[in-house]
Structure formats: C-alpha cells, structure tokens
C-alpha cells in the first residue's frame, strides 16, 4: 500500500522526535531528576508523538479500533506537556531571581498553571469526544487558552526582571519567548478544530496540510527550541544557606 500524506507526516515525526526523546533522557540524567521536571515533559511528549506516528503507519496494514484510539489520544495530547515544559523553564528562571536576592514570583503561580494544563489534559482522553466534540473538550480548549495567557504574563513579568538572572540562565526566557508564538498558532488550530469541526479543521479527517502547517511544525519548533536551550543550560545543584547566615542572601543558591 502506498504511503499517504498523513503517513509521510508520521515518518517525519519519528525522524524529529526520536532524537528529541534521546536528548530528553540525556538531560534528565545530566541535570538530575529533581531539576528535570521540564525535561520529563519533553520525554513524555516525544514518546506520545512517536507512539502515535508508529500506530499511524501500522494502521496502513492492520487497521483496528484500538490503533485509532491510540492515534487519537496521542495526537490530542500536545499542548499540555509543551506548556508545562515552558512553565518549568520560567519556574527555573524565577528560582534564580529568588536566589540572587531579587523579587521573585510566588511559586503558586507556576503550580496553578501546571494544574490548569493537567485539567485541560484530562478533557482529551476519549475518542468519542473527538468524533463529536462536546462541552467538556471545548472547556478544555478554553482552559488551554487561559493557560497560554498566564504563561505569556509570567514570561513578561520575568523578562522585566531579567537583570537579576545571569546570562547563562536567561536562555530559559529566550526559549519561552521563542516558543510562545508557535504555541499560539498550535492553540488556534485546536480551538478551530474543536469549535468549528469543518472539513478543514477536523480531528478525524481534516486537511493534512493545514494540520502540518498549524500543528505539526509548531510542535517541532517548540521541541527543537527547548531541547537546544536545555542542552545549552549549565548543570545546577541546590545548596541551602545555614539558618545562622544573614537574611540578605536569599533562601538558597545554585551550585554548579
């Protein structure tokens, strides 16, 4: 059976995400599990995309309901890990500001964004919902819109405080700043798909070219940007100040 347009996209995804998956595991090993929550999201996302792509290719010869369910779930879960990955980069930058004695943001801001993406994620877990978009999945799409605006707001605030971040760590802000436009286009694609559900924007049989331009390429860009910045970041270890030390030095330090 000849390869279709979607099969070509699946092959391209495997080519891109397999190196990203290996890089993600390397970054977790390099930075340590305690400092690698964001890279865990990278591994999760790359794994899901590879599984979905492999199932797409397998469906060429052995189509089954279970394969299409797997393809559907793996394809739908995209925004949550990518937003969480960018959120972890901002959280790291915020921690550096705190350690350097600057006025950092409350950790609750980042926890709230993380919870929001998880709630949005849980609304994308049923194939029947994809065939007939319900209020549940539309609410999930709205939550991701809110999450993007929160991410953008946190980025703007931390960017204004960048003087309290050493140059090497400012790469985290660069990664998020470059990723935000791509996430916005990817988010727009999801909103149009769930709210319009036309022949162009349709989860099951939409226009593959539109999907490639508004979804697949955007995900490639975010993964490549964040992976590249992750590989460029220095390895850090926490060390806590003694309670007997003066209070002016912050609550902790990064130790190379």
From TrEMBL:
It comes from the Eukaryota. It holds the Pfam family DUF7702. Keywords: Membrane, Transmembrane, Transmembrane helix. InterPro entries: DUF7702 (IPR056119). The chain crosses the membrane at residues 12-29, 41-61, 67-87, 108-127, 139-160, 172-196, 216-235. Residues 3-234 form the DUF7702 domain. This is DUF7702 domain-containing protein. It comes from Aspergillus sclerotiicarbonarius (strain CBS 121057 / IBT 28362).
């Amino acid at each position: 059976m000849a390869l279709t347009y979607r099969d070509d996209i699946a092959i391209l995804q495997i080519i891109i995400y397999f190196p990203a998956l290996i890089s993600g595991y390397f970054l977790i090993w390099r930075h340590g599990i305690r400092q690698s929550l964001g890279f865990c999201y990278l591994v999760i996302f790359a794994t899901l995309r590879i599984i979905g792509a492999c199932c797409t290719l397998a469906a060429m010869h052995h189509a089954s309901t279970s394969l299409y369910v797997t393809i559907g779930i793996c394809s739908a879960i995209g925004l949550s890990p990518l937003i969480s990955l960018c959120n972890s980069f901002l959280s790291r930058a915020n921690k550096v500001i705190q350690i350097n004695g600057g006025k950092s943001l409350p950790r609750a801001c980042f926890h709230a964004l993380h919870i929001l993406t998880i709630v949005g994620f849980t609304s994308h877990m049923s194939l029947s919902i994809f065939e007939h978009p319900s209020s549940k999945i539309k609410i999930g799409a709205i939550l991701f819109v809110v999450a993007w605006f929160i991410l953008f707001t946190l980025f703007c605030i931390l960017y204004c405080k960048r003087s309290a971040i050493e140059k090497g760590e400012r790469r985290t802000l660069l990664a998020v700043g470059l990723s935000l436009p791509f996430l916005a286009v990817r988010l727009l694609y999801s909103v149009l798909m769930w709210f319009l559900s036309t022949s162009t924007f349709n989860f099951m049989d939409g226009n593959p070219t539109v999907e490639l331009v508004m979804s697949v390429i955007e995900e490639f860009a975010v993964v490549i940007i964040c992976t590249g910045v992750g590989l460029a970041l220095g390895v850090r270890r926490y060390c806590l100040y003694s309670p007997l030390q003066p209070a002016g030095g912050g609550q902790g330090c990064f130790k190379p």
